[in-house]
C-alpha cells in the first residue's frame, strides 16, 4: 500500500485552508501494528526518560493518569519507525504539499487518556518553533482511534495559515502548553477513523476538546520542513525537545503577550 498521489484540488485546498484530510493513510492491519507499539510507549515498556511529559498537567483534573501524554521523538527509541509505512507515506505527501526538499523534522505521540477531558488550547505550532527564514512546514496528525468530538478530534481555523501568527502565552504555567485567543466559532472540526490523518500548516490555528469517552485518543504526529531549515534549527540549538519534552518555550518574542 502506497500513499495515493494528491490531486490538484487537494493541494489547492491545503494551500487555501491550511489543512487537508487524507483518508486511509495506513491500513487496518497497520493500525493494529502501530497501536501495539504505541501502547508499549504508554505502558513504559519503552523507557523514554524526559522525552515524556504531561502536556495538560496544569490544565486537567486528573492526578491518577497523565491528562495529555506527550512523547517526543519515538523514532529515536524505535528507529524502525522511520522505514515503516506511516513515516514513508507521510513524507511522500509532505513533498507534494511543500516541495521535494521536505524532510522529517521530528515526530511525537500525543494521547488523551479516557475521561481526562483536558483540552489542547488553541495555538499555532509556529509559536513553539524557532523563527526560521523559510516558514514552510506541515504536520501529519494520524489517528489510531476514532477521533470524534467527544474524544478530542482536531479543529482548524480555515485560512489562518495565510494570516499572521497570533500572540501566544503559556496557558497555565511557564513550560506548559501555549495558547492564543481563538474559538470554535471560527473553526471546523475534523473527525477521523483509525488510519486516516490530517496535514496542517505550521501557521494554521488548531485545538482539540478533551477526551470524555472511555477509550484512548491516540495520535501519532510527524512534522516536516525543508532540509535546509532543519539544519538551520540544529545549528541554532533547537531540536524540538529531543532531550526534555517538558521544557517548552515560546521561541519568538514577537508572538508573546
TrEMBL record:
Single GO term (MF): 2-oxoglutarate-dependent dioxygenase activity
UniProt-listed Gene3D superfamilies: q2cbj1_9rhob like domain
Region named Disordered: 237-257
Keywords: Dioxygenase, Oxidoreductase
Biased composition (Polar residues): 244-257
Protein name: Ectoine hydroxylase-related dioxygenase, phytanoyl-CoA dioxygenase (PhyH) family
Upper lineage: Bacteria, Pseudomonadati, Bacteroidota, Cytophagia, Cytophagales
InterPro entries xref list: Phytyl_CoA_dOase-like
